[in-house]
Design a protein that fits this description.
Family: Belongs to the 'phage' integrase family.
Distance between the termini: 70 Å
CATH architecture of the largest domain: Orthogonal Bundle
Strand content: 5-15%
Mean pLDDT: 84
Keywords: DNA integration, DNA recombination, DNA-binding
Helix content: 40-55%
CATH class of the largest domain: Mainly Alpha
Shape: globular
Protein name: Prophage integrase IntS
InterPro entries: DNA_brk_join_enz (IPR011010), Integrase-like_cat_sf (IPR013762), Integrase_catalytic (IPR002104), Integrase_DNA-bd_sf (IPR038488), Integrase_DNA_bind_dom (IPR025166), Integrase_recombinase_N (IPR010998), Phage_int_M (IPR053876), Phage_Integrase (IPR050808)
GO molecular function: DNA binding
């Protein structure tokens, strides 16, 4: 019999990204973003089967081992654990076929696909806040487009994005109910959308700080805390908060930060990693933040996992500012447009945007790294109030 109980609770808590075997088919899959999932691998009737046992740390090592033992027992008697669990889920849904029960089951089934196993609550919250209070106790088989319309109508023209997310999640829940064998109307959400009509809500841009005001705000970030250091690097690089919060030490090589392609947003058609040249000020911030690094993350929270996406926003709210962290990308873009003659392609690449059509991108072999290096050094000089060295961009920006 293969060895078992290879992992320890201490190792699991600080395990690096990768796959770690506890023995007898039980694996801990640790993702780069800090999330982790327990997976049990078995061979049933000559077929390899794999089933998730829950996310860590909500499921501890001891709990994962007990669950693994339970499902191994099912396999030993000749049954397929995956199908058995599906059968149990169907029976549970039939026993209490309310929308809330099925929605929670659908959320549990999707956790492994969500960032941090959905702990931030962003996937489930549109349902929890806007759908389940009215429809949670209704049998899922009874829900039709009129129920959905009446539930989301108050949001449809005022909080369109929230309503859209709630409608999307509800559609997923109905598909999950159908997979459980329940008789639901899979077209109910589309029908409800038709009944609701076109939203009159106009999207609002994320509030941004004027580029001329950024130095004064940057000067307030004097504390050597994870939050303030992360805010400083966010401003200096112009990246989105996602790649910044999940920045791992191995992504930095000298004065280049390489963001994995999968972590980038807004680069439709781009499959390559994105290189960010680091200014002298940015490197100094990274040096200050390095002692706080935990589990490979430069900006980790007190539990050693990825910094929450609300942390930076809350800091600006506490300062009574209307602007939000994402808005610093607009600050940088406006500064480029108003104070430099950086070509459009270079300026857009500064923000990680893919420019040109697929054919143009296929033939373009440059990411304008050196031009961006000069511009980001000048941007750092601006946000630090002129404390840096002004560098001229030859042939691209003055």
């Amino acid at each position: 019999m293969p060895a078992r109980d290879r992992l320890s609770a201490a190792f699991v808590k600080s395990a690096p990204a990768g796959k770690h075997c506890d023995g007898q088919g039980l694996w801990l899959i640790k993702r780069e973003n800090g999330g982790a999932q327990w997976v049990l691998r078995m061979t049933i009737h000559g077929r390899r089967r794999e089933m998730g046992l829950g996310g860590y740390p909500s499921v501890t090592l001891a709990q994962a081992r007990r669950r693994a033992d339970d499902w191994r027992s099912v396999a030993e008697r000749g049954d397929d654990p995956v199908k058995e669990r599906q059968k149990q889920a169907r029976e549970a849904a039939r026993a209490d076929p309310t929308l809330r029960t099925v929605a929670l089951e659908a959320f549990e089934a999707r956790k492994a696909e969500l960032k941090g196993d959905g702990k931030a609550g962003r996937w489930f919250s549109p349902l929890e806040l806007h759908v389940l209070p009215k429809l949670g106790r209704v049998p899922v088989e009874d829900i039709d487009q009129r129920d959905i319309r009446d539930t989301l109508a108050p949001l449809w023209h005022t909080k369109a994005d929230t309503a859209r997310k709630a409608l999307n999640r509800l559609g997923i829940v109905l598909k999950h109910a159908a997979a459980l064998g329940l008789d639901v109307d899979l077209q109910a959400t589309e029908k409800a959308k038709a009944l609701l009509g076109k939203s009159r809500h106009e999207a609002q841009n994320i509030p941004a700080m004027a580029w001329a005001e950024v130095p004064a705000f940057y000067a307030t970030l004097t504390e050597q805390t994870v939050t303030q250091l992360a805010m400083r690097l966010l401003i200096l690089t112009g990246v989105r908060s996602g790649p910044l919060r999940t920045l791992r030490l191995e992504q930095i090589d000298g004065d280049i930060w390489t963001i994995p392609a999968k972590a980038m947003k807004g680069r439709k058609g781009a499959t390559s990693d994105f290189r960010v040249p680091l200014s002298s000020e940015a490197l100094a911030v990274i040096d200050l933040a390095s002692p706080f690094a935990r589990n490979g993350f430069l900006f980790a929270n007190s539990r050693g996992t990825v910094l929450s996406d609300m942390t930076l926003s809350q800091h600006m709210k506490r300062m009574k500012l209307e602007a939000r962290p994402h808005g610093f990308r607009s600050s940088l873009r406006d500064w480029l447009a108003e104070t430099t003659d950086a070509p459009h392609e270079v300026a857009e690449t500064m923000l990680g945007h893919a420019t040109g059509g697929a054919v143009v991108r296929a033939y373009r072999r440059t990411d304008f790294l050196e031009q961006r290096r000069v511009l980001l050094e000048r941007w750092a000089d601006h946000v630090t109030g002129g404390a840096g060295i002004v560098v001229k961009l030859v042939g691209a920006a003055k």
